[in-house]
Specification:
The complex is a heterotrimer of chains A (about 300), B (about 325) and C (about 240).
Chain A: H1 2-41, H2 48-64, H3 69-89, H4 93-96, H5 100-125, E1 139-142, E2 145-148, H6 149-171, H7 173-183, H8 185-190, H9 195-220, H10 228-242, H11 247-268, H12 270-287
Antiparallel strand pairs in A: 1-2
Helix pairs in contact in A: 1-6, 1-9, 1-10, 1-11, 2-3, 2-5, 2-9, 2-10, 3-9, 6-7, 6-9, 7-9, 10-11, 10-12, 11-12
Chain B: H1 8-23, H2 27-52, H3 60-78, H4 82-106, H5 111-131, H6 133-136, E1 142-143, H7 152-155, H8 157-179, H9 183-193, H10 195-200, H11 205-231, E2 233-234, H12 241-254, H13 261-275, H14 282-297, H15 301-319
Antiparallel strand pairs in B: 1-2
Helix pairs in contact in B: 1-8, 2-8, 2-11, 2-12, 2-13, 3-4, 3-5, 3-11, 4-11, 8-11, 9-11, 12-13, 12-14, 12-15
Chain C: E1 2-13, E2 16-27, E3 31-35, H1 42-50, E4 55-62, E5 65-66, H2 72-78, E6 80-83, H3 95-102, H4 106-109, H5 112-122, H6 124-128, H7 139-151, E7 157-161, H8 169-182, E8 187-192, H9 195-201, E9 204-209, E10 212-217, H10 219-224, H11 226-231
Parallel strand pairs in C: 3-8, 3-9, 6-7, 7-8
Antiparallel strand pairs in C: 1-2, 1-4, 4-5, 9-10
The chains are: A mainly alpha (about 300), B mainly alpha (about 325), C alpha/beta (about 240).
Chain lengths: ~300, ~325, ~240
């Protein structure tokens, strides 16, 4: 009898852990864009969560007007990328001309203003709208453990998106040039790399990653206008814990925080979970402002 | 003994506000006037913390909220007179504000990390309030006990609360005018212009920054409590991160580190927010666009631009 | 033919002008040195040629074309390579990735494979360490990597700032010998504080002092000049 109880508890724990990893992948995907943009643009983009909302809103509107869902989602994701690119080319231009701490501060407030702007527009135009993608199967059991199919698919999409990003940054010449620009701007220019173009590219990529995060979140739960700043704070939490300039750091931190989130939720209940995550962030900043996994891009 | 300075334009401004209820006496207008006075105090606090001592606190809403909740909860659960519990709330907020400041300085966090830590703290506050439903009533909000406002028997509660809050804003404004010229204000200016040299000449950066944060927190705390008692109820929605944005917007619009900026900024933005109420969520968009334009085009704010224009007019008049 | 010409150049930093009417010519397939004491403006001059410092007056002409207003990366595409004194490598990337990025321009990328092989032959130590992170290498190895990265762009003009700093004299000598060998195919412009080595390898030398060219000539001509003898070579005039 006792053995039975133990095995039930362990299998439950494994389920919770895997659930945490799946959610963590979503967090990582949400954070990588923020981290990329901060690393090269020097801008802590508080409008990052709005890119997620924008993909959700565009996709939902297109789907409800009869579009093929896949096409609608692709358009939505591309739109977020283009929006990020447009911000880089327009309002953020004057910010880059500033130097040091001033650039970061002004960038912070400009993107905060943009976040409010987008949050206002999307909630005003589409109140009550939400983007959610149904997976036909409810649960899947693997080795006697059961999982929600939507969580699995969402985790898989996050994983593939992150893998794509890693391969792009690690294997292609353009990806290497982006990492070069992140590590040393003078060195990059001396190699013939156009740092401004790399930055625009990074904004586009960051927007795409946010769009993919919208897809992952739409499958696991839903995306709705008005929650952009909340998503931004999740991305910030992950980014800060991972080291705000490190893409790999953000990926690891996301998965780790996903596990903490799931365990805390399982053991302590949902409301305390977020508080615990936030306390972790404060502790990390105070203990090691450069992040736990800083270094390496 | 230094003479306390009472700038005339400030007096005129407050006299006008004191006279306004004679014209705008309906409850709706009185409410708007009171909210302007509340935000004016908030913005002075921001001017001390963010402007004078350059600590980018994005937890001003939380500091105001902590005090409001503490005082209301204590008064409710022990049946105490709120005037007795308000000091407890202030003490709590000031300790938190001082601690956040102390930790950020000792750990050498740059402005950006101070911003992230304090923003995170605001989110923690919000979630704790939401979670401690049995104590705070969560999202629904907590009905605050009735506070006795001076002279409310004669003028009625609305008028009495308005004048109390306005008088407090006036005192805060006088305090700020003298603060910038005090030893503390001068030390903060030295730290601002060159922190290293300030340290070299023996200015204790930690001490002065923590004091500035504590003073700012106390103003936020008192005003936050008044806000709660005036409003009749408090909720996480009132003390939310967007309150910080509104305060910063007012500060930037009026002019960072100016005496009249907080008055101009709070009046302008409260009126703007009231007049755009019909647009619902689009109000956020207005605020956002304003923030972007303000920060990119004139970071000096209205009040210093007006001052410069004024100086130009008077000096050119002199020459001719 | 002059590969590079600097004409009446004035340049500096915010509120501080450093270079005053600098004139300089670099003939094809020669090695030209700029010598001068610390702070005389050598780095500023090379940075101005590369577009890393703002020019307020005068022109930089490469192959007869004004390049004064081109961005750094555009100058690199035209065939100028630069080894900054701080090396400016990508510390968290492998040696091979650093080298590959040296061939980022489309012109160089086409011959990436060949160039890589040549650099590895030229600096065998880089081949041994091709997978090591650049930031973890010794100063001398980093200097070779910086030169290798610059050569990967197959430049017509190679500009080097203070090659000898932080290097053992024997290694510096070795690198200079290799550069001398390259000068049949390539033109080299270098800034040096180490006068003796500059005299040994250069075809022509400019002396910079307080942002002005105060003398120039072949090493033989300059060693005859009493000014240079006393000020730089430590000889009695
Ligand atoms: N980034 C900079 N900002 C301001 N002044 C500089 C900067 N770099 C160099 N200088 C000044 O320019 C002058 C020339 O410096 P530099 O070109 O580095 O000389 P060198 O390379 O010959 O030692 C020096 O007086 C130096 O102080
Ligand atoms: Mg130098």
């Amino acid at each position: 009898m006792t053995i039975d109880i133990a095995s039930i508890a362990i299998s439950e724990l494994v389920e919770v852990l895997i659930d945490g990893i799946l959610f963590g992948l979503q967090l990582s995907l949400l954070a990588v864009g923020l981290v990329l943009i901060f690393g090269l643009g020097g801008i802590l983009n508080l409008a990052h969560g709005e890119f997620v909302i924008v993909t959700g809103v565009i996709s939902a509107v297109l789907i409800s007007s009869g579009w093929n869902p896949a096409a609608a989602i692709v358009i939505g994701i591309l739109f977020s990328g283009i929006l990020a690119l447009a911000l880089d080319r327009s309002v953020l231009r004057p910010v880059y001309k500033l130097e040091g701490e001033m650039e970061v501060l002004v960038g912070l407030f400009v993107t905060l203003g943009l976040a409010f702007t987008l949050e206002g527009i999307t909630s005003y135009l589409f109140p009550g709208l939400y983007f959610s993608v149904r997976v036909p199967v409810e649960t899947v059991s693997i080795f006697g453990l059961s999982f929600r199919a939507s969580a699995l698919v969402s985790g898989l999409i996050s994983f593939l998106s992150l893998l794509f990003l890693l391969l792009f940054l690690g294997k292609t010449m353009t990806g290497k040039a982006i990492r070069a620009a992140l590590q040393n701007q003078i060195g990059s220019r001396v190699c013939g790399i156009d740092v401004d173009r790399m930055r625009s590219l990074v904004f586009f990529l960051g927007g795409l990653m946010a769009g993919l995060a919208a897809l992952a979140k739409g499958i696991a739960s839903s995306v709705e206008p008005g929650s952009g700043l909340e998503l931004t704070s999740y991305a910030l939490i992950v980014g800060v814990v991972g080291g705000v300039r490190s893409v790999y750091g953000a990926m690891i931190a996301g998965i780790l925080l996903g596990i903490v989130n799931a365990l805390a939720g399982y053991l302590l209940g949902t409301y305390l979970t977020l508080v615990i995550l936030l306390v972790i962030v404060v502790a990390v900043i105070i203990y090691k402002p450069s992040g736990l996994f800083a270094g390496g891009v | 003994m230094r003479v306390i300075e009472i700038p005339k334009p400030s007096i005129i401004f407050f006299l006008i506000f004191a006279a306004l209820p004679l014209v705008f006496s309906n409850p709706y207008h009185l409410r708007i006037l009171t909210i302007i006075a509340i935000y004016a105090s908030f913005v002075y606090a921001a001017n001390i913390i963010i402007g004078e001592s350059r600590q980018l606190f994005l937890c001003m809403s939380a500091l105001a909220g902590i005090s409001a909740y503490t005082s209301a909860i204590l008064a409710n659960s022990y049946g105490l007179n709120p005037w007795v519990t308000i000091p407890a709330g202030i003490l709590f907020s000031v300790s938190v504000g001082a601690m956040l400041s102390y930790v950020s300085i000792v750990r050498g966090l740059g402005e950006i990390f101070v911003a992230i830590v304090t923003l995170t703290f605001t989110l923690i506050f919000e979630n704790v309030v939401l979670g401690l439903r049995w104590l705070t009533m969560g999202e629904t909000g907590l009905v605050t006990p009735t506070l006795w406002w001076p002279f409310q028997e004669i003028f009625g509660r609305r008028i009495a609360s308005y004048y109390t809050i306005l008088l407090f804003a006036f005192l805060v404004s006088m305090f700020y005018a003298n603060f910038v010229k005090s030893k503390l204000g001068i030390a903060l200016r030295a730290i601002r212009s060159d922190r290293i040299s300030a340290e070299v000449v023996g200015i204790d950066v930690t001490k002065y920054s923590v004091i500035a944060a504590s003073i700012g927190s106390a103003i936020l705390a008192i005003t936050g409590s008044f806000y709660g008692y005036f409003n009749g109820m408090i909720s996480p929605g009132i003390f939310s991160p967007s309150m910080d944005i509104v305060i910063i917007l007012m500060l930037l619009l009026g002019g960072l580190r100016t005496l009249y900026g907080p008055l101009i900024g709070s009046t302008a933005i409260v009126l703007l927010l009231e007049s755009t109420r019909g647009f619902g969520q689009l109000t956020l968009t207005f605020l956002g666009i304003m923030l972007v334009i303000l920060i990119l085009t004139f970071r000096e704010g209205i009040s210093s631009i007006a001052e410069k224009a004024f100086a130009r007019i008077t000096s050119s008049g002199w020459k001719s | 033919m002059d590969l590079l010409r600097v004409e009446g150049l004035k340049a500096g930093y915010k509120g501080l002008n450093v270079l005053w009417d600098v004139e300089l010519n670099v003939r094809k397939n020669t090695i030209v040195s700029i010598i001068g004491s610390n702070g005389s403006g050598k780095t500023t001059l090379l940075n101005a040629i590369m577009g890393l410092v703002d020019v307020s007056e005068g022109d930089v002409v490469f192959k007869g074309e004004r390049i004064t207003h081109l961005k750094t990366q555009e100058r690199v595409s035209l065939g100028i390579a630069f080894v900054p004194s701080e090396r400016e490598l990508f510390p968290d990337m492998s040696v091979e990735d650093n080298l590959m990025l040296g061939a980022y321009t489309p012109r160089a990328r086409r011959k990436l494979g060949d160039s890589l092989k040549q650099i590895y032959d030229f600096f065998p130590v880089l081949k041994e360490r091709s997978n090591q992170l650049a930031g973890t290498m010794s100063g001398g190895e980093q200097q070779m990597l910086a030169i290798g990265r610059a050569l990967m762009s197959r430049p017509e003009l190679l500009i080097l700032d203070e090659l000898s700093t932080g290097l053992a004299p024997a290694i510096t000598l070795k690198i200079y010998r290799k550069l001398k060998g390259l000068s049949e195919r390539m033109t080299v412009l270098l800034a040096e504080q180490n006068i003796h080595q500059a005299f040994m390898v250069s075809d022509y030398i400019y002396v910079l002092e307080n942002g002005k060219i105060i003398a120039s000539g072949s090493p033989d001509e300059l060693s005859e000049s009493s000014l240079i003898k006393s000020a730089y070579l430590g000889l009695k005039a």
